[in-house]
Amino acid sequence: MDDKLKQKLKNYVLWLLGRQEYSRRELTLKLQQKEATEEFIETLLDWCEKHNFINEQRYCEGFVRKHIFKCHGLKRIKSEAMGKGIDRSLLEMVVEELEIDWFELAQDAYNKKYSNTPPNLDYKDKAKRVRYLMYRGFSYDEINFAMQAQ
């Protein structure tokens, strides 16, 4: 790789990071699409970490907060974090630090969707609501709490 291409890729990474946070894995994939060598990718991303342009802790905190704002449960957050390349132990540490009340979050998600509906449900409606909350990543206990609280 010549110096001009290296500078172009460096500018590309800085441009991406100027728009939003990225994990190291996401940036690696983007640079691989631009046909950068593995050696250059490692060097560039190490440089970015050294200058605090990439920070996995900061990225993980933002990722978790974004999903909490969307009323997603722990299972959904973990599933999507795996796809983003977030370290599982880092994710668990961030979730523990934020001290999230998953039962309250499940109740908020339920109320946001079903606040204007009658409380007496037939089996079909109840199953539909359970599936909705399961898709959002909540456990059965959290779902039961949310549905009982209405």
TrEMBL record:
The keyword Magnesium does not apply. It comes from the Bacteria. Residues 99-147 form the RecX third three-helical domain. Residues 10-48 form the RecX first three-helical domain. HAMAP family: RecX. Coiled coil: none annotated. Belongs to the RecX family. The keyword Transport does not apply. Its main location: cytoplasm. It is found in: Cytoplasm. This is Regulatory protein RecX. Modulates RecA activity. Signal peptide: none annotated. The lineage of its organism: Bacteria, Pseudomonadati, Pseudomonadota, Gammaproteobacteria, Alteromonadales. InterPro entries: RecX_HTH_1st, RecX_HTH_3rd, Regulatory_RecX, WH-like_DNA-bd_sf. Keywords: Cytoplasm.
